[in-house]
Amino acid sequence: MELSKLRCTIFCMFCVLTSLSLAFIIFWNDFEWNKYQMVAKQFMSFNKTIPGQNSNNSKMTEIYTMDSPLYYAPGEELRQKSDDLKDLTPEEFYAKLNKSLQDAQKQKFTIIYLRHNSIGSKRVASMPYHCGNCDVVYALDKVNESSTKAVVFHLQSAREKFFPKLRRPDQLYVWQSRESTARAQRFAPFEINDSHYLNFFNMTMTPRRFGDVWDPYTTEAELYLRKGLPKNDRELDSIIANKTELALWVVSNCGGKLKHMNGSTRRMKYAKEMITEGLDIQLGGKCFKDTKKDFKNRKYKFYLAFENSNCHDYITEKFWRNSLLYDVVPVVLGAPKSDYIATAPPNSFIYAPDFESPKKLVEYLKYLDKNVTAYKEYFQWMKLEFKDMKFRHRTHSFCQLCRILHGINIDNLYNTRYTEEYKVIPMFGFPTFPRIISSLKDYLFNNEENGCLDFPI
């Protein structure tokens, strides 16, 4: 009898744990879907006026001024890039921006997002006010609605079976990928090998800073809000004092003989040489038969944020989430150093290629482990004010795309290709010609270097 009760108790506990696990999975999916909205809403803590105070139907209108943390007139250097802006005062710039955002509220547009694992889902996300006025949906059946102005094809969904039967001339087709350009070659053979898709896409949405729509994994400004910066010296000392382990690396792509695995193979070789040279490191992920998700990153001093490709602007969650968000100093290997400098907080990372060998890098990490003052220098960026954060003034991803659909193109100013490709597009208004990418292959792959594409395209 006692044995039966024990079995019954164990079975009940198993059922409860299973239910909790399923509930967490559902919650996590919804959290990931809404995460960018949560960050965007935090940006909206600026001046608001409510015209008319007339009861229940009054609408809130954001007014952006020099005191608004996200919106301010571009500096003199950027204003000189644009004939539309170079003679504007900051006040005149804000008047134009506010007028455009108010006009955007008159008509809501739909953006269809086609991901290979989510097509058909009915989930909807509404963009915040400063993005314009758009809903993002997964449902392809809305493609023929007049309000649908853009179809975003995730690279693995850019297949003929997902293309609308009829293409409307008033819709933008956007190719989206957060993969490196080296990895994108594997998932996007249609464009590379088939001339049928030349002149097919209107825009790109990628982590590349020169893309039509910039789609980074995170920005310094967003990290600022999520971490509750700035910190003071006492808080930094507390963060460092709680670190009990030296280094962590969690990795599931172990490399291999296939050419698109070259980057993963290189990083594995480099990390193993560091271990041979005496690096004390906790290893996790599928490559090391430890797939648990929570390694309590904050107790580690360093994280190996080694990317699977050495491609421009390919700086992923390994850097932003696994490292900086958890107060860990990332040791990076991947994109050129200039890309990290352009996007990351100042003096927040250690660039592995700066050292002549893995041995020298290990020696430096051991030095920092014993020298608290030197190690603390990698946390000084957390004392910066919001006004010092990079890209606090630039929207991106679906927020930027929504702006473009409403004729708000001021984010083009921060594009590294602005003068050669975007200057003819007005800051507030629509181009007089269709935006077309004649060849996705040329647009993406011809701008990489041998370290990224060291195999034939």
Radius of gyration: 24 Å
Ranges where pLDDT stays below 50 over 5 or more residues in a row are 23-60
Helix content: 25-40%
Order of strands across the main sheet: 4-5-3-6-7-8-9
Task: List the defining traits of the structure above.
Rossmann fold; 457 residues; 33% helix; alpha/beta; seven-stranded mixed sheet
Helix and strand layout, with pairings?
Layout: H1 2-42, E1 48-49, E2 61-62, H2 76-79, H3 90-104, E3 109-114, E4 124-126, E5 134-137, E6 148-154, E7 172-176, H4 181-187, H5 189-193, E8 203-206, E9 213-214, H6 220-227, H7 233-241, E10 245-250, H8 262-276, E11 281-284, E12 300-306, H9 317-320, E13 329-333, H10 337-343, E14 350-351, H11 358-370, H12 372-376, H13 397-405, H14 418-422, H15 440-445
Parallel strand pairs: 3-5, 3-6, 6-7, 7-8, 8-9, 10-11, 10-12, 12-13, 13-14
Antiparallel strand pairs: 1-2, 4-5
Q: What would you say this structure looks like, in words?
A:
This protein is of the alpha/beta class and 457 residues long. The protein folds into two domains: 61-217 and 394-445, no CATH class; 220-388, Glycosyl transferase family 10, C-terminal domain (Rossmann fold, 3-Layer(aba) Sandwich), CATH 3.40.50.11660. It has 15 helices and 14 strands. It has helices at 2-42, 76-79, 90-104, 181-187, 189-193, 220-227, 233-241, 262-276, 317-320, 337-343, 358-370, 372-376, 397-405, 418-422, 440-445, and strands at residues 48-49, 61-62, 109-114, 124-126, 134-137, 148-154, 172-176, 203-206, 213-214, 245-250, 281-284, 300-306, 329-333, 350-351. It has a seven-stranded mixed beta sheet, with helices on one face. β12 (300-306), α9 and β13 form a beta-alpha-beta unit. α8 (262-276) crosses α11 (358-370). It is globular. Residues 23-60 have low confidence and may be disordered.
